Predict the 3D structure of the following.
Amino acid sequence: MKVLIMSDSHGLTKEIEEIKNRHKDEVSLMLHCGDSELSHESLELASLTVVKGNCDFGADFPNDVICDINGSTLYLTHGHLYQVKSTLLNLKYRALEVGARFVCYGHSHIANAEMIDGMIFINPGSIRLPVLRRQKTYAILEVENSIANVTFFEVNGTIVENLSQQFSL
């Protein structure tokens, strides 16, 4: 199963559509980790599972979503409610509460994938305002058997090799 993950688009619309269209035939699920700054009725967010970020004022999105990925739990949130800019500990505790194997979040605009205590934490970065790198990024999580691949892409679809990782489950 493949899952597209983007975050922190901060008002962009054309780029969201381009990313969705590029991968629509290869992914089973499309996620937005918040701060789209678009309304719930926005056509660009159609077909995306979206959570509310700290800049989504008045938007009617949930703070978090729990999804099933090949029998494993994926937890989706923006991250601001868990202080992810300073630590992943609070988010880890929440992920443990819901039994998550995969945790997708944004807020910091820092693209990263790492395994912590058997859980894979994925921040796709920002497709508008990246931090610590120039590439504006999103990610695709592919889970097959006991392997999880996290591939990062620039907005134009170019793979960011030095960020992409493989994890054994």
